Amino acid sequence: MSKQQQLSRRGFVRTSLLASTALPAALEAQTGAPPPPAGAPTAAPSPTPFPMGKIAGQEFSRLILGGNLISGWSHARDLRYVGTLMRRYNTEAKIRETLELAETQGITAINTYVMDDNTHIFNHWKRGGKMNWFAQVRLDSKGGYSQIERAIGEGAAGVHVNGDAAEAILKRNQFEKIPEMIQMIKAQKVIAGVAAHDLRVIAECVKAKVDVDFYQKTLHTHDYYTAPRPDETGPMGNHDNSWCKDPQAVVDLMANVPKPWIAFKILAAGAIMPQAAFPYAIAGGADFILVGMFDWQIADNVKLARRLFAQYASGNSKRTRPWYS
User: The domain 59-313 belongs to what CATH superfamily?
Assistant: First the structure.
């Protein structure tokens, strides 16, 4: 090997070592919580049970694990690589670790779309895990209810009409499909709900007195850089950047809806910090919050959510809405 090659090799090794130490620092600066090093021990079990709420008589943790990060639904605006990055980070082993860590920390439920690969949930059950599954469903390609049948057959504790699906049904003037789906789910003794980004879906369900067990509605502020611009007047942003057009209107409507409310997209897909989003959602009336989390975020989010739910349940902080769960 020539001296020049030796020097080049040394330079490469030195640069690589510097990069390996700089990257975690950069990640920490950007996220506030770096991923743990390989082989790091998982977080210790939570010292006290997590605050629980009931839907149709069944108890669930008030913090529910979202499935988008596991499935790669990144909602990363124009950063096209992020979904692939998520899927590569969340290997089968990492998903297993995430579910076990969440359960150890007191989280008892996860929410995913029935047509995604949910093998990780089923394997978690085979290993003795007790995580409850809320399954999102849509009408199938023929306009039928096969996704409901699949979700119930695969063991979902709760099934809800997906927000996109409910909005599409409303747009096609087929609203009658929603109560039909709810009746079908409840006929199988399974908890049934409706999700929405567009507040009109919830308003129509309330008006029609649809017999849901719960609602799942987006709630987030517009206090982030990629929030909708003045010309973005639809129920969602034009650039995969917003899922709650008018948060105050959501709070006002839900204040008069006596059903358990699971608030989702409360971080605006990662654009709002939990320290701001969690209290906003709980004070605004949410009975549960649904949050997508990487494994290294779980312990801190659980700690924050536990403190806030206890604080609001005690009456030390005021909510705009009674607890309906």
Answer: NADP-dependent oxidoreductase domain (3.20.20.100)
Distance set, CA 88 to CA 69, 85, 94, 209, 229 (Å): 11, 5, 10, 44, 32
Burial 180-204 (b: 16+ CB within 10 A, else e): ebbebbbeeebbbbbbbbbbebbeb
**For strand 132-137 and strand 63-66, is the pairing parallel, antiparallel, or unpaired?**
unpaired
Helices 199-207, 247-254: axis angle to 10 degrees equals 20
Calpha distance 156→202 (Å, rounded): 23
* pTM for the predicted model, two decimal places: 0.85
Residue 209, classified by CB atoms within 10 Å of its CB into exposed (0-12), middle (13-18) or buried (19+), is exposed
Tens of pLDDT, residue by residue over 177-188, are 999 999 999 999
Query: Could you read off the pLDDT of 299-318 as tens digits, one per residue?
Result: 999 999 999 999 999 998 99
